Amino acid sequence: MMWDPLTSPRSPDMGSKASKSEKIYEFKPFDFRLCADDDSTVGPFPKPRSGHRIVCDSSNLYSFGGYNPYISDSDEDLKDDPAWQTCKPLFQELWKFNFATCKWRKLPCHSSMPKELASNAVILDGGILLVYGGTGVPFGFKCSNSLYYCDLSRGTEMKPVTPVKSGSEPTSQYGQALVLNGHWLYTMGGTTGFVYNSDVHRFNLRTSEWEEVYICKGLSRHEPQGRYRHELAFDGQKVYVLGGGTATESYGFEEIPALDLATYSWETIVTKPDLNFNYPTARRCHGCVQLPPEGDAKKGSVIISGGYNGQMMFGDVWRLDLNDMQWQFMKCSLHQPVYFHSAAVTPAGKMFTFGGILNNGIRTNEVCAAWVRIPKLSEMCWEAILFYNPRVATQPRNKLVNMGFPKEFVDRLDV
C-alpha cells in the first residue's frame, strides 16, 4: 500500500524515534482501560445509569434501558426529551457505541420500546437484539413477561413478539437470565419484587410458543434457590447458574447449579478453587461474559466481574474454565468497584463494561474494555491504526477499501 498521510504515523520524520511525550500503541491484554478519545465530551452520550443491559458485536456495543433516580428535572440534555419526561427515572433508550470512533449514537426506536426498562434480560442473535422481561418503577409493581426484538442494522423500531397461545409463559418479573440454544430461548429465574424463583421456561422463536421446562417445587435437592440478577453459561448441553441472590442473600460459586437440557434434570457441580485466591466471593448484580473454546478444548470459559453482596461491592475479575470447572483469579481489575453494571464481549475476545453503581450510590456512564484472550494479529493492527490515526474512522468506506484496508474492518465503521 502506498504511503498516505491519512494512514501513516503522526510523526513527520518517518525514520526518527518517537519522542518521550509521544504516545505509543501497546497491546496489553487483561488490562481494563477507559474507552474515550480526545473528544469524549463532544457529541451525544448516555447519562450515567444502572440496571441496563449491553451486548456486543465486532463493531459496536449496544446499551438498552437503565435507571437513574438522581438526575435533576432541570437537566439541560433531558428537560425537553419526551421519552425521559414520560419514563423517568428510567431510560427508554437504545444506544450504540462504535468501537472505531469511540462515539455514541442514540437509535431512534424509543417510541416502540417497552416501558419496563430495568433489569431486563437481553441477548444478541446475529443482528437481532432480543429483550425479555424487566420492571418499571417502583420496582416490582409493574413487571413484564414480554419479548421484544430489534433489527440492529436499522435500529428504528423495537417490536413485541406475540405468543400464539397463553398459559405456559413465565410470570411477569425482572432480573431473569437468558440462554439461546438454536431456535429455543431459555429464561431462568427472576423476581416479582416479592417472590424469587429459579423456574425455567423456553420460547420457540419459530412458532412463538412458550413451554415449561422445569418448575422448582423442592422435589430435588439439586434445585437452585430462587434468585435474580444471576448470570448463565451454556456449554451446548448444560446451563450453569452463576451467583445471583435476593434482597438479603447472595449465592456463591463453590457449588454451581447446572440444568442438563437433554434430561431437564438439575445437578450440583463442585468447582475447583484458584490455588492462591480460593473462590470468588458470593455476589449478585455482577457482569458475566462467555468465551468460546480454544484449541483442543471442548468447552469455553466464563468471566465474571464486579457485583455486590449486600455489604461489599467488587471490582475483581474471575475466570471459570467449563472444561474442568477450575476458577482462576485474574490479575487485573475493573476500573473501579461497580455493580448493576453490564458486560459483553466481542467475537474476537475484547470485553466491555458499561455503567453501574459506584460508591455512595453514584451511577457512572464509563465504558471500559480489556482483551481477555489474545486476538489475531490483524485485530492488533487495526487497533494500532486507529490509535495513531483516528481520522481513519471518519473516512468514506470506498476510499479506505481502495487504499487497501480489509473490508472486514472497514465495515465496522459507523460512517
TrEMBL record:
SUPFAM superfamilies: Kelch motif. This is Kelch domain-containing protein 10. InterPro entries: Kelch-typ_b-propeller, KLHDC10. The gene is LOC113209415. It comes from Frankliniella occidentalis. Residues 1-20 are annotated as: Disordered. Keywords: Kelch repeat, Repeat. GO terms for biological process: positive regulation of stress-activated MAPK cascade. Signal peptide: none annotated.
